[in-house]
Amino acid sequence: MLAATVRVSRDLDEAEEAVQDAYLQALERWARDGVPDRPGAWLTTVARRTALNGVRHREVLRRKLPLLVEPEAAEPPEPAGPIPDDRLRLVFTCCHPALAQEAQIALTLRLVCGVATADIAHAFLVPEPTMAARITRAKKKIAAASIPYAVPAAADLPARVSVVLTVVHLLFSAGHTAPTGTDLVRAELTARALDLARMLRALLPSDTEVAGLLALLLVHQARLRTRTDAAGRLLRLEDQDRARWDAELIAEAEGLVVEALKSGPPGRFSVQAAIAALHAQAPSYAETDWPQILTLYDVLLGLWPSPVVALNRAVALSMVDGPAAALAEVARLESDGRLAGYRYLPATKADLLHRLGRDAEAAEAYRAALELSDNAVEQEFLAARLVSV
Predict the structure, then answer these.
(1) Contact 209, 162 (CB under 8 A)
(2) How many CB atoms lie within 10 A of CB 384?
(3) What are the φ/ψ torsions at residue 180 (nearest 5 degrees)?
(4) Residue 178 has pLDDT above 70, yes or no
(5) I need a labelling partner for 244 at 20 to 30 A (CA). Which of 54, 180, 227, 361 fits?
(6) Which of 211, 187, 188 is nearest to 198 (CA)?
């Protein structure tokens, strides 16, 4: 709805206000007249009409025409450009190079993708008020610098692709494991991210990182329905029913991974996809090719030296060299401090301590993870693990 509205207003703030106004009108009109047959279309039409009125008033003021009857304003023509979809066009537009990269990503996730500020804060490992202030500053900068709604030309797309890929990946992640709330998975977010990734693939078929991202999302999507049991309880990878994984999606992903790795030096998403594909190919958790996965994590750390990647590598290390070696890596990450507040660090530490038979320390680490988790399904899982050690 926002994407369709901003095409009329050419201004993100005005488009956002028009969308909010449409919802307010719906509350009043639908309570009185009933919900229309196509509520989404109704909301979009009202939002676009409100935005169009705003454009019309601006034109009148600009021309200073004291007319009693305002002239009819036609909707602006469809923006010419290489991106055929409103949503993807708006993602590229919001990833404006005038903003800092983190601001581009946060603003796009909030405004275009509808991800809650609290969930974006979890992704960036910062407190929610910090993220809210960051998004507000980005919007003020757009207004102060008079950055227009301008669809990038084809020549400008490559410079923005990296940030757009990160946005789509974080959108999928927010749906794959919801940072907050009562459900582990938000299928509408993963479906939206996968849709955007497929559109990117159609738009930029020779970009190997686009292929890598799509492959990564396909593997995770293939396993999505097995991440919880019938009662909605979280299942670890080793406990999932591999027969229920979507073989068609995994085969599609494997083709993309091979294509991406053959086309030149690998990128961050291509390597992540290769790791995910190895997990998907293993007949069982115990038969996973852990040495190759550890090697790929070493490559990934070189491309993307993130403490989260280092923590994931520690899990692979524990399967190759044992939990003691991995615990030393986790201790190093703990003293580093960048993962303070990241619930998976104490959860990983707890699992390693339990495997070493140090259950009292494992229990303490599980309590720390519980305090940091805001998702009810994860909290239930961690509480059960705490009881078991």
Answers:
(1) yes
(2) 12
(3) -135, 165
(4) yes
(5) 180
(6) 211
| Total number of residues shown for the chain | 389
Q: Each residue of 110-145: pLDDT tens digit?
A: 888 888 899 999 888 889 999 999 888 888 887 776
Q: Cβ–Cβ contacts within 10 Å for residue 24, how many?
A: 10
Under 8 Å CB-to-CB from 294, ≥6 apart: which residues?
Answer: 313, 316, 317, 319, 320
Structure-block tokens of residue 217: 């999302």
Long-range Cβ contact pairs of 97-101 (< 8 A, separation 24 or more): 97/159, 97/160, 98/141, 98/142, 98/145, 98/147, 99/138, 99/141, 99/142, 100/138, 101/163
Residue located via tokens 């299942």: 235
Query: Could you give the 3-state DSSP secondary structure of residue 152?
Result: coil
247-290 pLDDT, tens per residue?
Answer: 999 999 999 999 999 988 899 999 999 999 999 999 999 999 99
Give the global pTM: 0.84
Cα 140 to chain centroid distance, Å, stands at 24
- Whether residue 379 is predicted with pLDDT greater than 90 in this model: the reply is yes
Q: In which band, very low, low, confident or very high, does the pLDDT at 364 lie, cut at 50, 70 and 90?
A: very high
The per-type count for the chain, helices as H runs and strands as E runs, is 18, 2
**Backbone phi, then psi, for 245, in 5-degree steps?**
-70, 150
In contact, 9 and 20? CB cutoff 8 Å? no
- In this predicted structure, which of 18-22, 162-166, 343-347, 369-373 has the lowest mean pLDDT? 18-22
Residue 54's contacts (CB-CB under 8 Å, 6 or more residues apart) are: 9, 14, 18
CA distances (Å), origin 86, targets 83, 151, 180, 260, 276 = 8, 10, 28, 27, 30
- In this prediction, residue 83 carries a pLDDT of 81
**Residue given tokens 């009109």 in the structure block:** 29
Q: How many Å apart are CA 353 and CA 349, to the nearest integer?
A: 6
Which of 382, 323, 387, 320 is closest to 355 using CA atoms? 323
